[in-house]
Amino acid sequence: MWKYILKRLLISVLILLLVALIIYALMRSLPTSYVEAVARQKSQQPGAKSYEEWLNQLNEMYNMNGNIFVGFWTWLTNVFQGNFGDSWHYTVPVLDKFNDTIWVSFIMGAIAFFFEVIIAIPLGVIAATKQYSKTDYVVSIIALAGISLPTFFFASLLKLVFSVKLGWFDLFGLTGREHDMLSTGGQILDYANHLVMPVVTLVVVSMGSLMRYTRTNMLEVLNADYIRTARAKGLSERKVIYHHAFRNTLIPIVTILGGSLPGLFSGALITETLFSIPGIGFASYHAMVAGDIPFSMFYLVFLALLTLVGNLIADVLYAVVDPRVRIA
Q1: Angstrom distance (rounded) from CA 154 to CA 144
Q2: What is the CB neighbour count within 10 angstroms for residue 47?
Q3: CB 294 within 8 A of CB 87
Q4: Do the Cβ atoms of 280 and 266 come closer than 8 Å?
Q5: What pTM was estimated for this model as a whole?
Q6: How many CB atoms lie within 10 A of CB 305?
Q7: Which of 18, 169, 201, 292 is least surrounded, with the fewest CB atoms within 10 Å of its CB?
Q8: What is the DSSP string of 266-292?
Q9: Could you give the angle at which helices 184-222 and 134-148 cross, rounded to 10 degrees?
């Protein structure tokens, strides 16, 4: 097992370097150029240098005057030294901005992940045990609606109904106007009030696929020979379903959930932007729009790292929970 993990880690490092190079090349090809925007702004000041002079100076300052491979090597050298540079858009070190925003995204993602699991898996099991019944059809409709609904549409619908029409929640932000005047308990409730609609959005648009996956695997297990044998021995239907069938259904589900765990740290770019939640997704969106290469590079490479870690966790968990799997 440890030899397999070490081998996967070495391969992952190579993949991460190649992905980082591709991301850097894409960042350098963005139509939005922070350097050009700043050079244009400074050249319009009274008595300032020309646009071309400012552009050359800023390109030299940010290592943008060489080819892509030279620039990537400079960035990679700084990364190995623990220096991710300063954010051009936020004018603070990249790691400082990351630390300020990541925990908001993590808390929101963790809450959504918890509700997704406790809602989707039981409903998937119930739908499988009552195949072709009204319950099965209702669960299938809910799952397909969750899979099909675009995030921006469902979020806009929630804001229209619960903010504009009913006035229950604020349209944007993480805190209200009187947040600083509230007690500690009141501030926590204020945070919770502003997170309700973003969390509901994340749960609804993500639980459909897990629900369908659970139902499909549960149906496959229920049709297995050993389930028919258990029923023939006179075991109760409840014990057959929840002791024998459900335990085997969990094997592929655990691998899916294991791969989803790193996503708790990646943020929800669309949802956070629509609700103006100051998380890592919201910050990265504005950084990309502004052409902020240092922050965008860090965020996208961070996502690539999370993806590789998630795949490794899923593979290892599959071998752990299923004793029939052996890694040669």
Answers
A1: 14
A2: 4
A3: yes
A4: yes
A5: 0.81
A6: 18
A7: 18
A8: T--HHHHHHHT--SHHHHHHHHHHTT-
A9: 120
User: Using CA atoms, how far apart are residues 325 and 328, in angstroms rounded to an integer?
Assistant: 10
- Side-chain-side CA neighbours of 160 within 13 Å: the count stands at 6
Residue 93: phi, psi to the nearest 5? Answer: -55, 145
Structure confidence by residue, pLDDT tens digits, 18-59: 999 999 888 887 776 777 777 887 787 777 778 788 778 777
Q: Which residues contact 182 (CB under 8 A, 6 or more apart)?
A: 189, 190
> Could you tell me the CA-to-CA distances from 230 to 129, 215, 275 in Å, in that order?
15, 20, 51
Provide the sign of the torsion angle of the four alpha carbons 155, 210, 239, 224, taken in this order.
positive
Give the integer Cα–Cα distance in Å for 176 and 191: 8
Calculate Rg over the CA atoms of the chain: 25
| CA–centroid distance for 197 within its chain | 17
Burial class (CB in 10 A: 0-12, 13-18, 19+), 45: exposed
Tokens 């806009």 identify what position?
156
The residue assigned the tokens 């950084």 is 287
| Per-residue model confidence as pLDDT tens digits over 142-157 | 998 888 888 888 999 9
Report the 10 Å Cβ neighbour count for 9. 12
Torsion angle of C-alpha atoms 204, 206, 210, 215, degrees rounded to 10: 40
